[in-house]
Amino acid sequence: MPIFRAPGGVRLACHMSGEGRPLVVLPGGPMRASAYLGNLGGLHEHRQLALLDLRGTGESEVPADPATYRCDRLVDDVEALRRHLGLERMDVLAHSAGGSLAMLYAARYPDRLRRLALITATPRALGMPATAEDRLAAARLRASEPWFADAFPAFESWLSGTGDFDPVFLPFFYGRWDDTARVHADREEDETNDDAADRYGADGAYDPNATRTALARVTAPVLVLAGEMDGGPSPALARRAAEVFPVAEFTVQPGAGHYPWLDDPEWFVRRVAAFFSGPE
What we know:
Strand content: 15-25%
Structural class: alpha/beta
CATH topology: Rossmann fold
Low-confidence stretches: none
Number of domains: 1
Mean pLDDT: 96
Strand order of the largest sheet: 1-2-4-3-5-6-7-8
CATH class: Alpha Beta
Number of strands: 8
Shape: globular
CATH architecture: 3-Layer(aba) Sandwich
Radius of gyration: 18 Å
Helix content: 25-40%
CATH superfamily: Alpha/Beta hydrolase fold, catalytic domain
Distance between the termini: 28 Å
Number of helices: 11
């Protein structure tokens, strides 16, 4: 497990898996340890995954200044990883909240990016958060599930701000609520730095207009992958995010929720590996 120093001297961990050209992987959560990504459904058989534990998560050091958890201040941690790996340009895959970090990285360091995949990434950095309506519309697609009757009222209450987070509605985040999904969901609390998560999108983290302007000049190919059953982002919101990039592919994984590599690993790996195998 490589350890390297980021700005401010913070020691960061990067978990390497597989062989071949490195693929830098930015986790979501926000601020969840990269362990939840596993090997991304077997993607490590096609590329060497370099899974970054963001500062204060997983095996990475807790910084002295918690203000450095803010998304825009993490960009140079990603750049430090690129230098540590000795890459002139790098491929990046970002999941969920990590998508905003990847967008800010692309905006600041466009010449260091070879290809970028945004996986079920809510585009908060573009001023486009997922709405309660998006999430409820996706949830209603699950009306035939045996757990729906108990889960939907709690989910609706939470999204309206009148109820607390309730594990009963975790199935809405997965395309298949099976034993694999249950184990994965049960790990989230232990793998997430809640203080860091609260600061990730703090005031000043995002400047949507400036980011849009910068991304309009990014020449690296971008893949935006949405899950058919996901509400954050919905496929429609993900498509709008793809339109910001000059060279972008948009795809929807059938039957997938927010963690598509769990819902259909073969479909996910085939699509993502094909994208990263494209020309320079």
